[in-house]
Design goal:
eight-stranded mixed sheet
Amino acid sequence: MALIAIDMDGTLVNGKNGIPIENIESIRAAQKEGIHVVISTGRMYESAKEVLDEAGLTCPIVCLNGSQIYDYEAKILQNDSMDKNIFAKALSICEAENKTFIISTSEGSFTKCRDTLYDEFFTDKKTGKAYKVTATLRKIRNYASIEDFNDLDVYKILFLSNNEEAINRIRLKLMQEEELLITSSGSNNVEINAANVSKGAALLKLAPILGVELKESMAIGDSFNDVSMFNRVGFPVAMGNAKDELKSHCSFVTKTNEEAGVAHAIYHFLDQKQKKKQN
């Protein structure tokens, strides 16, 4: 095993936005064996690094579904933003549907109405208290118009809705735009990136920099924005909490993110590696 690419939400972290100790220890065990462990996430860099820092882990990070790549020293290796015209089309479609979407840019995250976003998706309905959220969400700001993005690089739009019809409707509209890549990291969202951006494409660029072959690498994920990774590596692994359709893309299904499925997968393949050495 040369490289292990690990998705974050629904994979590496549990429902409390923390990394189980078993996952931390398994990543350190892999790194001790000389294996590069890469975090590949839809999150912005600051949010991903915050969680890794809390766990005491240092890894290259593919963020915003492949829009950016950071190395071990936090040096940026790739920075692919969305074309302004195609961003304008995507934003118009989102604005026509609702106010609950997040735009990730070179100057942080923006939304149409922060209060509505928090009330619908980041607040406990029983207690009225806000959930523990990432650094990006804590700093999210409202924007007034598309002109606010004229001098910014835009990387991704995350559209959120608890209405299945709205999710299907906006996905169909966006998929008509050839310059966009439409994926998802959950049943209540649609992730919008430039067509040339994906987690798999980012791994293709990162692998030669790290001096590894992707056919000798593993990817672990739980959502459809992980499929591009699965298609690039030799050992695709689905989380136990992934949908059956996603599991069909993989050669191995591990435990859920609440059961430290990442650790289970890593130790499984490390054990196989050790058995091959003994033979």
